[in-house]
Amino acid sequence: MRFDEAYYEKFYLDPGTRIYGPKHHETLVTAVTSLIDWFGGDLDNVLDVGAGVGRWKNWFKKHRPEVEVTSTELDPAVCKRFGHEQRDITSWRARRRFDLVVCQGVIPYLGDRDAAAAIDNLAAMSRGFLYFEAITKRDLEEVCDTSRTDLHVHKRTGEWYRKRLLRHYREVGAGLFYARRGKLQFFELEALP
């Protein structure tokens, strides 16, 4: 299993090798939650899939302690250390739906069949927003700092992800999607058609 404590130490905790630190991540979560507030979305519960070192959960605990956060990971030691439930998104679906589902950097590690199943599972648990981050082939060629990025991912196009996501969601922008079954309406220029 690759997503063990050594993986998270290298890519998330060690300042010399990590992708970005807690401060940068706080800015991300603040932006996502602010957009949800702006659109008038509910934010009573959150599911963080592949929660890693628990930065989303920590942010909510500090800034919005009334929000219930469920976090999952694969590795038992990581789950124990950071307080996550051990789950595999390729085969697991909670029986409930969440106002915000977070899936940051998980799906590029999965083969095509598992990745498609995972996206379907995310959608089944989503009644509102999805924050989705996945490194694409273009990102690896043009954007990523390859000295700080785990390159052992499936190099898919953004179109591959959008084709599967847009079956279930409307794309709002900046990695944020909204469930087609959701109650919110968007102005024409707020979301892609």
In a nutshell, what does this entry contain?
The protein is an alpha/beta fold and 193 residues long. 36% of the residues lie in helices and 19% in strands. The mean pLDDT is 94.
Q: What is the correct CATH architecture?
A: 3-Layer(aba) Sandwich
Q: Could you give a short account of the major beta sheet?
A: 7 strands, mixed
Per DSSP, the total helix count is 7
Alpha-carbon Rg, integer: 16 Å
Q: Which stretches are low in confidence, meaning pLDDT under 50 for 5 or more residues running?
A: none
- In CATH, what is the class? Alpha Beta
- Physical arrangement of strands within the biggest beta sheet: 3-2-1-4-5-7-6
The quaternary organization reads as single chain
- Compute the separation of the termini in Å: 39 Å
Relative strand content: 15-25%
CATH superfamily: Vaccinia Virus protein VP39
Question: What features would you highlight for this structure?
Answer:
19% strand; alpha/beta; Rossmann fold; 193 residues; seven-stranded mixed sheet; 7 helices
Structural description of this entry:
- There is one protein chain.
- By secondary structure, the protein is an alpha/beta fold.
- The chain has one domain: Vaccinia Virus protein VP39 (Rossmann fold), CATH 3.40.50.
- The protein has seven helices and seven strands; from the N terminus they run H-H-E-H-E-H-E-E-H-E-H-H-E-E.
- It has a seven-stranded mixed beta sheet.
- The longest helix is centred in the N-terminal third of the chain and has 18 residues, at 22-39.
